[in-house]
């Protein structure tokens, strides 16, 4: 099997490792079958799509809607690299699954708009599939409604031209969409479990996702939520796109 490529942007080594391990487990792959590149550490370079079965992009603290003057050199470089890659995978209709940050990367293509209109606090919320989501090869096996962990400052305010809306919450109209037949983005995190989301709540306590006094209550609520379904998307992505 050709390996999958995993792209990360988290500067915190322990959180970055936890994210990769969770995606690895969710996909049911070995480390040699899910090759990791940490974009916050260096440039991506040219990607030969023919060498890969598919590409998975993780989340992180970067937001495309951050003020330009507030973006670090690493963020600017990652955004530029991912813009080139996004245009490449969309043009080739190549298997791509971007979680959370994937919304920012893909959502601004083809006259789409990503801004701060539909941000949601950290926690678990019901995600509902659209009719197109229920018929989609990746999302179709999922329940019509499921709980998912999320927490984001930005979201898609206007879908890119030609995008297919696959899922929404009550407070964020675009939680998943597809471009072409094989390029996907989710606003929620399919890889998260209660331990991982609590660790992220701690790791990003100074990033403006919540007020300091909310930290322990957010963790308690996350532990109580029964989030079981989103991780199935990772195994399904591999099932659909693994190539010999």
UniProtKB/TrEMBL annotation:
Q: Which CDD domains does the annotation name? A: GATase1_1
A Pfam family that this protein carries is GATase
Protein EC = 6.3.5.2
InterPro entries found in the cross-reference section: ChyE-like, Class_I_gatase-like, GATASE
Q: Which Gene3D superfamilies match?
A: 3.40.50.880
Q: Which domain of life is it from?
A: Bacteria
Name of the protein: GMP synthase (Glutamine-hydrolysing)
């Amino acid at each position: 099997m050709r390996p999958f490529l995993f792209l990360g942007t988290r500067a915190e080594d322990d959180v970055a490792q936890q994210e990769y391990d969770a995606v690895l487990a969710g996909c049911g792959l070995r480390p040699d079958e899910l090759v990791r590149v940490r974009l916050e550490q260096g440039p991506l370079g040219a990607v030969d799509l023919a060498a890969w079965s598919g590409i998975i992009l993780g989340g992180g603290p970067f937001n495309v809607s951050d003020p330009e003057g507030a973006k670090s050199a690493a963020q600017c470089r990652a955004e530029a690299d991912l813009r080139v890659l996004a245009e490449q995978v969309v043009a080739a209709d190549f298997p791509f699954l971007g979680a959370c940050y994937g919304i920012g990367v893909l959502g601004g293509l083809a006259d789409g708009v990503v801004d701060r209109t539909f941000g949601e606090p950290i926690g678990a919320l019901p995600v509902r599939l659209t009719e197109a989501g229920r018929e989609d090869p990746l999302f179709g096996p999922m329940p019509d409604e499921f709980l998912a962990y999320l927490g984001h400052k930005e979201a898609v305010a206007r879908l890119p031209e030609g995008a297919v809306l696959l899922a929404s919450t009550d407070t964020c109209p675009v939680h998943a969409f597809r471009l072409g037949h094989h390029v996907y983005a989710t606003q929620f995190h399919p890889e998260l479990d209660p331990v991982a989301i609590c660790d992220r709540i701690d790791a990003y306590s100074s990033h403006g996702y919540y007020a300091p006094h909310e930290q322990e209550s957010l963790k308690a609520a996350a532990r109580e939520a029964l989030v079981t379904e989103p991780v199935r998307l990772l195994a399904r992505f591999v099932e659909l796109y693994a190539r010999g």
